[in-house]
Design brief:
50% helix
């Protein structure tokens, strides 16, 4: 799966999980969910400004063994999360209807 397709699938997961499962939005909520070990997927925007805001998330995901995906746009991530504003990170707690898409994306991530 090429990167563009992967990213569109990740946005799809966020939207579906928002509607039929459960997500947490924002760096603080993302960090808390990761530390508690309840996150199934972390999605972080590459265009976070300043980048230091999200720098701790990738190592934390690695430590907690949670899949980590970067997307190019905090605006698009915010929109997928159902927000009127941009967000630099979200975590999926329950995938809901996004289960199949999430399995496909995770299978692709494990190949990298």
């Amino acid at each position: 799966m090429e990167e563009k397709e992967l990213i569109s699938k990740v946005y799809e997961i966020v939207e579906l999980a928002r509607e039929t499962g459960k997500i947490k939005k924002g760096t603080n909520e993302t960090t808390k969910a990761l530390e508690k070990g309840i996150a199934k997927l972390a999605v972080v925007a590459r265009d976070a400004n300043p980048p230091e805001v999200t720098m701790h998330l990738k190592p934390l995901c690695k430590e907690k063994n949670v899949p980590y995906v970067e997307v190019p746009s905090k605006d698009e991530l915010g929109a997928a999360a159902g927000l009127q504003i941009a967000t630099v990170s979200i975590v999926v707690l329950q995938e809901g209807e996004a289960k199949k898409t999430m399995q496909m994306v995770l299978a692709n991530l494990s190949k990298e």
